[in-house]
Amino acid sequence: MESIIRTVGLSHRYSTAWAIKDINIEIKKKGIFGLLGSNGAGKSTTMNIICGVLKQTQGDVLINGIDKKKDPIEAKKQIGFLPQVAPLYLDLTVREYLTFTGKIRLMDTAVLTSALDEVMEKCGLTHMQDRLLKNLSGGYRQRVGIAQAIIHKPRLVVLDEPTNGLDPVQIIEVRNLIKEIAEERTVVLSSHILSEIQVLCEEIIMIEQGRLVFSDSMEAFNNYIAPQSLLVDFENPPAADFLGNINGVNRVEKISQRSFRMFYNGEKAVNEAIISRSMENGWRLTQLTVEKNSIDEIFKQLSKNSKNI
Amino acid sequence: MKKIWNIAKNELYSLFYSPIAWIIFMIFMVMISASYIRGLESFFRFQRQGGWGLSLIKHLTFDITVNPKAGYFMWELGSLYIFFPLLTMGLISREKSNGTIKLLYSSPVRIRDIVLGKYLAILVITLCFVAICAITMVALSFCVVQPDYLLMLGTLGGLFLLLATYAAIGLFFSSLTTYQIVAALITFACLAFLTKAGELWQEVDIVRGITYYLNIGSKTGYLMRGLYNLRDICYFLIIITCFLCFTIFRTRAFTESVSRWKTASRYIAVIAMAAIVGYVTSRPSVNIYSDLTRDQMHTITKPTREVLAKLNEGPLEITLYANLLDNMFVHGFKPSQQNETMTYLLEPYIRFKPDIKVNFVYYYALDTASYYFKNFPGMTLRQIAEKQAAGMRVNFKKFLSPEEVKKLADIEAEELRHFFVIKYKDRSVVVRTFPKDNDIWPSENEITAGLKSMIMDRPKIAFLADGIARGPFSDRQRDYKFIAASKIDRESLLNQGYLFDTVKLEGRQLPDHLAGLVIADVRKPLSDDCLEKISQYIDRGGNLYLAVEPDRKELVAPLLQKLGLQFRKGMLIQPHTNNSSDLVYAELTPKAQQLSPQFERFLYDEHRFSGDSVFRIALGGSGSFDYVQKDGFLVEPLLKTNPQLIWNRIRPVSADSLQLKLSRLSEDESSSFLPALKLTRMLNGKEQRIFVAADADYLSESYLIGRNPVRYNYGFGFWCFSQFSYGRYPANTVRPFGKDVTFKIQASAIPWQKKILYWIIPAIIGLAGSALLIRRKRK
Question: What is the DSSP string of B130-175?
Answer without folding.
Answer: HHHHHHHHHHHHHHBSS--HHHHHHHHHHHHHHHHHHHHHHHHHHH
